[in-house]
TrEMBL record, chains A, B:
It comes from Streptomyces spiramenti. Keywords: 2Fe-2S, DNA-binding, Iron, Iron-sulfur, Metal-binding, Transcription, Transcription regulation. Pfam families: MerR, MerR-DNA-bind. CDD domains: HTH_SoxR. This is Redox-sensitive transcriptional activator SoxR. The keyword Transcription regulation applies. Residues 136-165 are annotated as: Disordered.
Length: 165, 165
DNA sequence: CCGATACCTCAACTTCGCTCGAAGTAGAGC
DNA sequence: GCTCTACTTCGAGCGAAGTTGAGGTATCGG
């Protein structure tokens, strides 16, 4: 390589270090179709620098509680071939906006009512939307728990269950 | 049973129906020390009605992304023997307050900056706190993913990775 | 008193998101 | 050319949060 031309590609170790994601996880992401790489003559992975951005997006999204499969779908909106522009990224991010809004709303409600609600009998839920994961968001909310659809924690109001005092 | 004296206890089926949580899950919670029951002569479970409230709390907390082990710890603050008062519940709920506040803050930041941030290079993170799960909350944030400590998604800023256009 | 339905235990299996180890190969520095 | 480290694949295992099924027992309504 001529001087001044630094390698614009990353090895898996470099990508791991810079993204803070373990090589094993990166291989796993690749296997799952979230990122891709080209191979050297000796079968080693080389990543475009842009992949750093992809990995960052993946971690942020995971943090949001979105499963990898869904993140993969979102990433598939990015152009292949061409390096994504800020506009491309904005379009992808837009996907989470609704989730994000709903989730913030839900958590805010929860914060403002949780303590009182549990004690008072409201958290026997039903109308109290707090614990109510019937909306799509809550179901996909935090994490790998694909609460298997169906009204989890619904209809629990119990007139006979009034706390003492 | 004398008429007028309705059974104040619930079978597992009744608890399941009213809480929206499957019997298998309730047995699992019991095994994990989150709820308890007395047994009939024939070895069947009978739950105090108060358990409904406990289960509701469990689901709400899970929804927050808190693992069962931690929920168990929180629930252990409730008095044993005596039926919890609203004040008891408030104390338990107080435990999540910090998490809740931090999480809301994080998601709000994310919402307000996500699109721009990813495209602009900021989401190569480091200073941009958005994807940064170094704080305790994010780690325990969504779900069963105990991101194994260590700065996941840190130091990824790359001056050489400027998007085109 | 009988039968239907709901319950019991226990072990095995599932999904997600990885990690670990073994056995072997590539590539960079001296 | 040699060595050392970083890489490769593959299969197994893990932890969380349950579900499923087999084989057996309670309890309730008629």
């Amino acid at each position: 390589m001529t001087p001044g031309t630094i390698s614009r590609e990353l090895t898996i170790g470099q990508l791991a270090e810079r993204s803070g994601v373990a090589p094993s996880a990166l291989r796993f992401y690749e296997e799952s179709g979230l990122i891709d790489s080209r191979r050297t003559g000796g079968n080693q992975r080389r990543y475009r620098r842009e992949t750093l951005r992809r990995v960052a997006f993946i971690r942020v999204s995971q943090n949001l509680g979105i499963p990898l499969a869904e993140i993969r779908d979102a990433l598939s909106l990015l152009p292949n071939g061409r390096t994504p522009t800020p506009e491309d990224w904005a379009a992808v991010s837009e996907r989470w906006r609704g989730d994000l809004d709903a989730r913030i709303h839900q958590l805010t409600q929860l914060r403002d009512h949780l303590s009182g609600c549990i004690g008072c009998g409201c958290l026997s839920l039903r109308d109290c939307a707090l614990a109510n994961p019937d909306d799509a968001l809550a179901a996909k909310g935090p994490g790998a728990r694909r609460l298997t659809g169906e009204g989890a924690a619904g209809r629990a109001r119990d007139p006979e269950d009034e706390p003492p005092k």
